[in-house]
Automatic annotation (TrEMBL):
CDD domains: Sigma70_r4. This is Sigma-70 family RNA polymerase sigma factor. NCBIfam families: sigma70-ECF (TIGR02937). The keyword Transcription applies. GO terms for molecular function: DNA binding; sigma factor activity. Belongs to the sigma-70 factor family. ECF subfamily. Residues 37-98 form the RNA polymerase sigma-70 region domain. The keyword Calcium does not apply. It comes from Altericroceibacterium indicum.
Length: 191
């Protein structure tokens, strides 16, 4: 059983015996640091009918904390009414929070939503082999084609900058890069 005790030192002060027609929490005054267990059970039932079970404990705790804070300031003459007024306030706050965060539209994130790629030794070896295969194919390209491709893909130069550096036309740069891409793609497909 989930129990809140708001008494100093963690001890609950026991009240009088409840009659069948009158709840214990309505017959007693909430004294500084005291709340009856029956009131909290009733609040728990109130929340169980209105929110998800996973939220109930936190909401009952919020009620208990608000009452604890209020008790320090003044006495409460009608404790049952006050406890349920606080419970309704906590319920409204909970609803507002859910609406503003659009929690009804959230989806629980599971591991399968975000698969993590493992860097297994086999995968690392396969990647290293593929990289070596591409580098070998790059070395087989004609010098000018390889130079244009490297300047564009690895140095991130524009076609016009490559044309100036290699002293060729922009269309010649385009042809060199297209030739490099075709030959590298063919080499990758063969490998």
């Amino acid at each position: 059983m989930f129990l809140f005790e708001l008494c100093g030192g963690g001890n609950m002060i026991r009240g009088s015996v409840a009659t069948a027609d009158q709840p214990a929490c309505s017959r007693q005054r909430l004294e500084s640091g005291q709340i009856l267990q029956q009131c909290l059970r009733a609040v728990r039932g109130f929340f169980m009918k209105r929110v998800q079970a996973s939220d109930v404990d936190d909401m009952v705790q919020n009620v208990a904390l608000r009452i604890q804070t209020h008790l320090a300031a003044e006495r409460i003459d009608n404790p049952e009414r006050y406890v349920f007024q606080v419970a309704r306030s906590v319920l409204v706050d909970h609803h507002r929070k859910n609406v503003s965060r659009m929690s009804g539209q959230h989806e629980t994130l599971e591991d399968w939503h975000h698969p993590v790629e493992e860097l297994s030794p086999e995968r690392i070896l396969a990647g290293t082999d593929e990289l070596q295969h591409v580098l070998n194919a790059l070395q087989l390209l004609p010098v000018r084609t390889r130079q244009a491709f490297v300047l564009h893909r690895f140095e991130h130069l524009s076609y016009s900058d490559i044309a100036l550096q290699m002293e060729i036309s922009v269309s010649a740069v385009e042809k060199h890069i297209m030739r490099a891409i075709r030959k590298l793609s063919a080499a990758i497909d063969e490998g």
